[in-house]
Design a protein that fits this description.
alpha/beta, Cytidine Deaminase, domain 2, 9-stranded mixed β-sheet, two-stranded antiparallel sheet, binds zinc ion
Length: 172
Amino acid sequence: MRGTLRIGATAWSAVREHLFGSRDERMAYLLARASVWTDPWGSEVVDLLVTRAMPVPDAALRLQSGVRVEVEAAFTREILVACYETGLSLVDVHTHPFAVGAVSFSGHDVANMPVTHAEFLAAVPPDPPRTAASLVLGQRAAAGVFTDPGGGGLHRLDRFEVLGDHVEKVAL
Ligand SMILES: [Zn+2]
């Protein structure tokens, strides 16, 4: 299974500006329309097109440091309700502000993502197709994963594209 994430350039630059406006980790939620299709070679592809980007204000964080960030449950619940009501998928994005080169999810992230993704899939009905994804951003790099909409575990995101006058590929 492959996965692609696409976001408009204006929304992405606003999200990045928020995320890197602090020396501590920050978060944003991206709400995305998911489509699931089978490519000509027979493999299943999940396409996520972001329709709404929501930087999480620091006031809505219950824990924030240079190495950890956690969002207040009430804020996340509102986002879940929005996804439920609109059939949208959820992409959580956070920074590792001290990662200057390659970036990867921390052990805490790796332990946490299957739990939050499973909670999302249990909360939002599967029609239209929906999934949960996570992105971590370093200063110059990104890494991303998504969960099989059928609940079959985590997969790496294959492509991340920023749509402006040109399509800019973000290296994963
Ligand atoms: Zn992290």
